[in-house]
Design goal:
This protein is mainly α. It is built from 14 helices and no strands.
Length: 258
């Protein structure tokens, strides 16, 4: 058919068919990353100095683009030498090249010592810090095993805060990351309830596509069937651009809903 005919059909609610075009990721398969041999690596790194560990990490950047391969030894080193966590974090923030920073934050998020969690929290809470540093810190936090409902509530509170465009970008990512935390902690009823309640409370206030898109992304990260009625209603919206954001909310819904 001619392009004009297709365009007209796409705006005809009665004939518009939407579908999930995103890769289906079953929520039960999503887990925080820690190398299976992490503890063995910790022991192997006990007698390694910080300069040696850092040099080894930087050398991996030239050998592989796999972030986990780039960071697993440094995460093990930091768990074996927690006193070095602040120095490494400082290097990530002030000395790392931009293309190295993702690996630096992943190393901190994969470090099990709580000092690494506190460093990530400090970066994320600093509203005048780099936008990307704050977003990476937020992602690193939700993939850790030592966080829970308090972080979920803090992320949701941040998502509502006004600020500069950079700060608002971090706030919108905080909403999405709250959904990630719920998806990763489905066995944690306190986290699930906090996120479900928080996201549901956002629905009435977010009445534009730009406002709903990150909310649906957060919902998609939860895999929570409680939001299915809202997604179904949105799928019948007369605006095709509005309907187009619905599939992102279905990404991790259990297969039974398809």
């Amino acid at each position: 058919p001619e392009g004009a005919v297709l365009a007209e059909a796409a705006r005809d609610e009665a004939h518009y068919v939407w579908g999930n075009t995103f890769e289906e990721v079953p929520s039960q398969e999503v887990r925080p990353y820690v190398a299976p041999d992490h503890q063995q690596r910790v022991e192997a790194m006990r007698n390694v100095s910080y300069p040696e560990a850092l040099k080894g990490m930087l050398e991996t950047f030239g050998r592989t683009s796999n972030l986990y391969e780039q960071t697993r030894d440094m995460a093990a080193f930091l768990d074996g030498h927690p006193d070095q966590i602040p120095e490494f974090a400082g290097a990530v923030l002030t000395e790392f090249e931009p293309e190295w920073k993702a690996a630096g934050f992943l190393a901190l998020s994969s470090t099990q010592n709580t000092a690494a969690r506190e460093v990530l929290l400090d970066v994320w809470r600093e509203r005048n810090a780099s936008e990307m540093d704050r977003i990476r810190a937020s992602v690193g936090l939700v993939t850790r095993r030592d966080v829970g409902a308090p972080l979920a509530k803090e992320l949701l509170a941040e998502s509502r805060r006004p600020g500069t465009p950079s700060q608002r970008s971090v706030s919108q990512h905080a909403l999405i990351h709250a959904g990630m935390l719920s998806g990763l902690r489905q066995e944690d009823e306190e986290v699930r309830t906090a996120v479900q309640t928080g996201l549901a409370s956002e629905l009435p206030a977010r009445q534009t596509i730009e406002e709903r898109a990150p909310l649906f992304s957060a919902i998609g990260n939860t895999g929570d069937l409680a939001f299915l009625p809202e997604l179904e209603r949105a799928s019948r919206h007369p605006d095709p651009e509005w309907r187009a954001i619905v599939p992102i909310g279905m990404r991790r819904m259990p297969d039974i809903v398809y």
